[in-house]
Amino acid sequence: MSSSTRSSQASTTLVHQPWFLFMVMAALLAFTGFAQSWLFALTIVQLCMISSIMALGVNVQWGYAGLFNAGTMGFAALGGLAAVLIAADPVPEAWSVGGAGIGLSALVIGGTIAAVILVRAKLGGLAGFLSTAVILIVGYLLFTAVFGPATSAIESVDASQTGYLGGMGLPILLSWLVGGLLAAGAAWLIGKVAIGLRSDYLAIATLGIAEIILAVIKNEDWLSRGVKNVTSLPRPVPYEIDLQTSPAFVEFAQNWNVDPVALASITVKLAFIALFAVVLIVLVYLSEKALYSPWGRMMRAIRDQPDAASAMGKDVKSRHLQVFILGSAICGIAGAMLVTLDGQFTPGSYLPLRFTFLIWVMVIVGGSGNNMGSVLGGFLIWFVWVQSESAGFALMDALSGLFADDSPMRGRLIEAAPHLRPVLMGLILILALRFAPKGLIPER
Amino acid sequence: MSLLQATGMRGGYGAADILQGCTINCDRGEIAVIVGPNGAGKSTAIKAIFGMIDLREGDVTFEGKSITSLAPQARVEAGMGMVPQNNNVFPGMTVEENLQMGAFLREDGGAGVIDKVYDLFPAVKDKRYQLAGELSGGQRQQVAVGRAMMTEPTLLILDEPTAGVSPIVMDELFDRIIEIAKTGIAVLMVEQNARQALEIADTGYVLVEGQNRFTDTGAALLADSEVRATFLGGDQS
Amino acid sequence: MHDFANAFILLSNYVLIPSITYGSQLAIGALGITLVFSILRFANFAHGDTMAFGTMVAIFCTWGVQALGLSLGPLPVALITLPVAIAVTIALVLGIDKIIYQFYRNKKVEPIILVMASVGVMFMMNGIVRILIGTGDVSFADGARFIIRAREFREMTGLDEGLALRTTQVITVVVAGVVMAALFWFLQKTRTGKSMRAFSDNEDLALLSGIKPERVVQITWIIAATLATIAGVLYGLDKGFRPFTYFQLLLPMFAAAILGGIGQPIGAVVGGFVIAFSEVALTYAYRRVFEYLGPDGFEVEGLAQLIETEYKFAISFIILVIVLLVRPTGIFKGRVL
Ligand SMILES: Nc1ncnc2c1ncn2[C@@H]1O[C@H](COP(=O)(O)OP(=O)(O)OP(=O)(O)O)[C@@H](O)[C@H]1O
Ligand SMILES: [Mg+2]
């Protein structure tokens, strides 16, 4: 009668076998390769893998512990920022004009915080309040006095090309780790405040923190170049052009009778895929390990029976904080990987629909609580997301055929095509919640 | 044929049955009292009678008609009133508004009945514009009973109306309940203060693990040495 | 004395009037959120997009009326198309409730599932609005632009600073006042309104009193849709319509509802004004105010702005965080979820 009994009966059938579902997914991708182009299929696979990693991160939070993080976008953007800070070329001139000022500003902030903590510990009551206020005001004035000139000096250094401090010029792969750490740090801060309140509050708070992270990244030009974007970040894999001009590669291609240009593109994509696969496999392995460890069992016990768990002396809040940090770190890693793949950091492209809620659809459709489910959801939903774009245009194109050539409706329809995607995703989310709340690969 | 007949009730909140075939009857002008140890299923039994949980087996009839499949609101319309054990007032609303909400189903808005309730509980009238959440425990219980009286039910169900009130207020409340029963209303009540409750009970039910252990008149149960020893905290007549 | 008056006019023009206007818009939006919160017990992520939808309908109707060559004189046409927009939005929201939310209600799922379903609804409304009206800015405030123009004010008073009062600002405040008065009257004095409060206070007891939950829920949606449309149209008249902005209003509105105390309509109103005032006052550049107030020839370096405008979202967020830390029930002792 209830949906749970229905799905438990169905779980014995083919469509609920993970291997079968992954086969179907592979077939879809292969079909794309044959029918459209292999390069296109590989491009999809790259982003499928990154999406899967983000979905894993959300699954760790939601599936394991029942935490609703509506700020995935912010953590992914922090990961992306890490890629810039690690791998972009440093701008020595900017450092020389403003580095000291930025350092000093950091000292002022640190000093103010330290002074406040000290005063709060020593003085209570009105005296404590007043001196805290004075310290804060003085700190703020000092900060603006140092920070403003420093940033404007930095931002005026060859503004059209740099205008920011640049990165450290280190290998970009390192940023995958740092991105995770950066996101973990932010998650620790926000988690300290919002964990322990009912999940709606966490959702609202994380929604807010994501907006703020993005606002900082978009406006602190000295740090991230803001909406001027950071382009041509180094790659961890060879460039197509280098391959095409390498005699050995060209000879290899000719031996196999393929076009070197095409082969170069495919090689690069495969190289990325190999790197991503390593990360994905390691993360899936670790997530599975964690899920079936005593830690993971306790996590799920807390999720299902929070009252009983806390009655048994489990520290629910600190467990939740752990899981929140871990999940956010995974999203940060994925964010760094995405920027690495794109070779550029474009803060304007971070939209909540794409970077937060789409990931949620992946987790729900894939099966919350199941890591393989999240991976599948990441692949499937990203595939649908990409394909629905061209399908949307085709549909609108066909519809616009109904109107006269000079009708303004034609333009409107084509313009509207991209917005069919959120409608479709919303529909998928609602249908999944209603008819398959356990997802394609239910939790074991 | 009693006004209320709940026969062979079986059911609970999940897989396990809390009620194991328990039977409760109550008639007009009569006070029926359910007693028993904590967790015996007393609250569950009256929730089942009121349709707040679904029964797997058994039947509830009211005024001779089966009401087993009716929703709680429909039972209110049919003439049943209920005071739950916990959270039995609207804390953010004034006392008067609480009573008005009790009369929600009445076409006339219950203006006349409010006066009757105020007559029954004069203390409530004094606090009519105060928030119910700011009342003392005893006052709150009176408001809760008053709210349930607003539909002028033929059957009034009370879950531990004297929980957390002083002995004086308890006697006072019992007096009111006797008064209510005298007007011809059937009163079905769960009580922790078993001895005092059985003293005013026409019928007493001793419930243990979801089953009727003893059923008799209140006086007979009070006189039964086994009941006294096991459920009334020793022989101290 | 002159300087003082100038400073005051400056502040009124750029802080006081804008924050009262914006506060009214936020308050009406937050009222809808807090009502859904208290009756249906979930944070409705689709509320911003419901506002966008209602506003869009009002804009279409406005265009229709304008195409007929009609106008309302000094008032914007949107005022008479508002009822139509409200009706359409109510129909949509009730339909959504029937198709989507009712199912979960009957199954008594965890509230977070409802939040997620509302995210799905948000996605769909988001796409539909953009398909129908596009993503760009739409300005649909017609009629007289100003009630008081800055130049006229300067000529009238002889001050250096002019006070400009836009028609849309006055309309916002008047409409908001009427709407709030009507809503509070409804909740406090009518039987249906009281039954909603009762349901919000103690759902089980409301059921035992014969209050019909589905009816309460329907009325809640009707009110929420009405408030959302009004808030959206007022905001759009005042600042122009752009779908993404409406999504971004979600955070300040949530913050207002939580700051005031969830389930407390009066709290939502106060919260809305506090958030709006903080946003405007903290991002305003006070340089000229200080120059008027300081001694003659006094000059301020920089803008004297506490927080850059780009970070105005941070303000509602920080207020939200402080409330959660210090007093999770909010100013008016609302519910803690
Ligand atoms: N809402 C509920 N969900 C699940 N189980 C419940 C619920 N309410 C009660 N129970 C269980 O049902 C059993 C009977 O509870 P009930 O409240 O009927 O006892 P009671 O006789 O009223 O006890 P008390 O005298 O303490 O009020 C208990 O084991 C209790 O744990
Ligand atoms: Mg009980």
Describe the structure.
The complex is a heterotrimer of chains A (444), B (237) and C (337). Chain A is mainly alpha-helical and 444 residues long. Chain A has two domains: 13-90 and 166-435, ABC transporter involved in vitamin B12 uptake, BtuC; 91-165. Chain A contains 19 helices and no strands. Chain A is globular. By secondary structure, chain B is α/β, with parallel strands linked by helices. Helices cover 37% and strands 23% of the residues of chain B. Chain B contains ten helices and ten strands. In chain B, strands 6-7-8-3-9-10 form a six-stranded mixed sheet, with helices on both faces. The radius of gyration of chain B is 17 Å and the shape is globular. Chain C is mainly alpha-helical and 337 residues long. Chain C has a single domain, classed as ABC transporter involved in vitamin B12 uptake, BtuC (Orthogonal Bundle), CATH 1.10.3470. Chain C contains 14 helices and two strands; from the N terminus they run H-H-H-H-E-H-E-H-H-H-H-H-H-H-H-H. In chain C, strands 1-2 form a two-stranded antiparallel ribbon. In chain C, helix 1 packs across helix 13 (287-293) and helix 6 (167-189) crosses helix 7. Chains in contact: A-C, B-C. At the A-C interface, helix 8, helix 16, helix 18 and helix 19 of A face helix 4, helix 11 and helix 14 of C. Bound molecules: adenosine-5'-triphosphate and magnesium ion. Magnesium ion binds next to helix 1 of chain B.
Mean pLDDT of chain C: 91
Largest sheet of chain C: 2 strands, antiparallel
Number of helices of chain C: 14
Give me the oligomer status: heterotrimer
Strand tally of chain C: 2
Shape of chain C: globular
Bound molecules: adenosine-5'-triphosphate, magnesium ion
Strand content of chain C: under 5%
Instruction: Work out the radius of gyration of chain B.
Output: 17 Å
Main β sheet profile of chain B? 6 strands, mixed
Number of helices of chain B: 10
- Secondary-structure-derived class of chain B: alpha/beta
Q: Indicate how many domains the architecture of chain C comprises.
A: 1
CATH class of the domain at 1-72 and 187-237 in chain B: Alpha Beta
Greatest interface by residues involved: A-C, 46 and 48 residues
Helix share of residues of chain B? 25-40%
The low-confidence runs of chain B, each spanning 5 or more residues with pLDDT under 50, are: none
Radius of gyration of chain C: 21 Å
CATH fold-type name of chain C: ABC transporter involved in vitamin B12 uptake, BtuC
Q: Reading side by side through the largest sheet of chain B, how are the strands ordered?
A: 6-7-8-3-9-10
Distance N to C terminus of chain C: 51 Å
